């Protein structure tokens, strides 16, 4: 049973295309019951607010241990795409318990240089991982804050970012079922991020 559990962890952490997931060893090798965390990361594609050149990282804290899990969209391999946005699903296995969306980090480019920024910490978005259940925390769509060139009087992406957060349950459940047919019978539960103020999902701290 232990071997099967570890195989599942590797499978779900490694099959989110274009998504880099880092789960600290104390959590990835836990002997406790496990559940699943799912959501989607994407970007807007319309100029000049496009987020296509921004890498967005969700920093999720395990409340009991203070260990930080990172989920980053590092490559465009869309699971969904419209004229305005694109993105992909992330799914990972975690020990049951309480987690918090602690902060969001951004790595962008203003056309001249790389810019790094993050949201405030302790965002307060509480997440409960329950056994044998998929906890869905919605989609996070990044767009660039717009800058204006004083020389050319044109607008362009600044490299600093903001996120629109909402829930597209039916779409992401369908993607999940296609990627993990062996898990489609599990409850796929949309969970509001308790205590999160969506206005805080924006670049406020320069790194």
UniProtKB/TrEMBL annotation:
Keyword Signal: yes
Signal peptide: 1-20
Superkingdom of origin organism: Bacteria
Alphabetical keyword list: Signal
Name of the protein this chain belongs to: Lipoprotein
Organism whose genome encodes this protein: Photobacterium aphoticum
